[in-house]
Amino acid sequence: MLSLSECIRTFLFRYKTLLIWEFHQFGRIDVDDDALMGHIPNNIGQMQALEKLDLSSNMLCGSIPSYVTNLTGILVLFMDTNYLQGTIPFPSRSGGMPYLSFIRLHNNHLSGNILPLLATYDNSFSSQIPESIGQLSQLIMLNISNNLIEWSLPQEMSTLQNLQTLHLSFNYLNLSSIPPWLTSLSSLSRVYLAGSGIKDQIADFLQTTQSSIQELDLSENLLNGLIPSWIGSLSQLYLLNLSRNSLDSNIPESLINLAILGVLDLHSNKITGSITGVFDIDQQGTSGGGLLTHINLSDNIFRSGVEAFGVGEQLNIQYLNLSHNFLNATLPSSLGKLKSNHNLDLIFNELPSMSMQLILL
C-alpha cells in the first residue's frame, strides 16, 4: 500500500502532466527528466505557437499521436528515453512541420512500421520509413537509435541537405551496406550506424563525401577486410569507432594524418601487427594525434608497439586499453609520461613481469 506522501507525490506528478497540455500558447516546453507519466494527448496538435517540446527522460507511454504533425512552427522535438510504443509520425505532405530541425526519439520501444501521418489520410501503415521524411528540409539532427525500426532507408533522405547528425544505431535496419546517398549530404558531420547489419568491407565511396565527417561509428556490424587507408584523408575526424567487427590486417599508417583525432576505438576485431607505425609521433615527424584522449585496441592480435605511447605530443591520453592481445615487449618508461591517464588496461597479454614494470614507471 502506498504511503500518504507517495500518494500525494503521484497525484502531483499526474496533475502536472495533465496541466501542461492545457496551455496552448506556450512557445517552449522543457520538462525533461521531470517524472511525467501517462499518454501524450491528442490535443498536443493545438499548441500552434510551440517551437520547442522536450519531453525526454520521463515515464510517458503509449503512442506518439499523429496530431503532433499539426505543430507547424516546431523547431525542436525531443521525446527520447520514455516508454513510447507504436509508430513514428512524419508529415506526409509538403509544408508539414517545415521548420523542424532537431528530432530525438531514441531509447523508446518504437516499432518499424512508420505511419504516413496526416489526419486526413486513412492511417494505413507502411513497412518502412516513408519517403515523406524528405519533406523535413530543415532537419539538422535525426536520432532514432535504440528502437525497433526495421527495413531500409529511403532514397529521399538524400534531400536532407541541412542534416548534420544521423543516429540510427541499434535498430533492425539490416542495411547490408552503407547507403551511397550519404555522400551527397553536404552538411553531414556525425554518422552513427552501429548495429545496423552492414556487411563486407568499408565502402570506398565514403571518401568522396561532400561533407567533413567528424564522428563515424560503424561498430557492431559485420564488416571485414582492411581498414582502408583513405580514412586518413578525413581531416576533420575526431571520433572513429569500428569496434566489434571482423576487420583484419594492420592499422593503416595514414591514420596519423588525423591531426584532431580524439577517440579511436577498434576493439574486438582481428587486427594484427604493430601499433608503432601509427602512434610513434616523433618518428613520423608530425604533431598529429596530440588530441587523443581515448584509445581502445583490446581484443585484437597486436604483438608490439607499446613503446609508441607517451612520446611526442601524445600526453593527454585518459583511457588506454590494450588488453587481450599478444604484446610481449618490455613496457617503455615513456608510458609513465601519460599523466592524464585514468584507466590503463594491459591484462591478458604476454608482457614479462608486468606488475613490476608498472611499479617502476
TrEMBL record:
It comes from the Eukaryota. Gene3D superfamilies: Ribonuclease Inhibitor. InterPro entries: Leu-rich_rpt, LRR_dom_sf, StomDev_PlantInt_Reg. The keyword Transferase applies. It is an enzyme of class 2 (transferase). Its EC number is 2.7.11.1. Keywords: Kinase, Receptor, Transferase. One of its GO terms (molecular function) is protein serine/threonine kinase activity. Pfam families: LRR_1 (PF00560), LRR_8 (PF13855). Coiled coil: none annotated. PANTHER family: OS01G0149700 PROTEIN (PTHR48004), RECEPTOR-LIKE PROTEIN 16-RELATED (PTHR48004:SF73). This is LRR receptor-like serine/threonine-protein kinase ERECTA. The lineage of its organism: Eukaryota, Viridiplantae, Streptophyta, Embryophyta, Tracheophyta.
